[in-house]
Amino acid sequence: MPLHSYTTEKTGSLEVICGPMFSGKSEELIRRLRRATIAKQKTGVFKHSLDNRSTLKSVVSHNGTTLEAFATYTPEAIAALVEDNDIAVIGIDEVQFFDTTIISVICTMVNKGKRVIVAGLDTDFRGVPFGSMPTLLSIADSVAKLQAICTECGDNAIFTQRLVDGRPARYDDPIILIGAQEAYQARCRGCYLIDKKPFVLQL
Q1: What positions carry a catalytic annotation?
Q2: What DSSP string runs through the chain?
Q3: Among 80, 166, 194, 202, which one is most buried in terms of CB atoms within 10 A?
Q4: What is the pLDDT of residues 56-97, one digit of tens each?
Q5: Domains contained in the chain, CATH given
């Protein structure tokens, strides 16, 4: 039986940047893409259309750093734009919002020799692995898991705490709610609060 390599003539890669809200994911994504631009590599930046906190036309970090981006609901639109414009380095922010077809789209681009850099929440406000992120983390060439600062005690934060009227949201609340400081905080394991433990953590 013939053997098949995972690589093509030009080797691509997948880099995943993850962590809770306010950990600097978008800032790190922007930093890597700007370095690629300085290196004269053609870059393309994409985000989900749900993320309209500041503007649909840019990726915006919480410290105000911006980079022009194309917003879309469909992973196929990313693939088409990359192909049509011969983009070499692809950045995708808030990748957890895309449906699971984003996985096959990313794998196809990597197999075509593209460098793909994605940023997103690894867990939702319930502490449950978010969307396609578990798979992307598993198949990534490299992973940067960032931490924020707990708003309660100042320790390293790995959880995203959703607030409703200033109080912790309930486990059964809707998973996706676009917001920033008014709706979310970064919390450490000791300060994170939820009304029941996520099923994924029960042994």
Answers
A1: 94
A2: -----S--SS--EEEEEEESTTSSHHHHHHHHHHHHHHTT--EEEEEETT--SS-TTEEE-TTS-EEE-EEES-HHHHHHHHHHHT-SEEEEESGGGS-THHHHHHHHHHHTT-EEEEEEESB-TTSPBPTTHHHHHHH-SEEEE--EE-TTTSSEE-EEEEEETTEEPPTTS-S----STTTEEEE-TTT---SS--GGG--
A3: 194
A4: 666 766 666 778 899 999 999 999 999 999 999 999 999 999
A5: 13-146 (3.40.50.300)
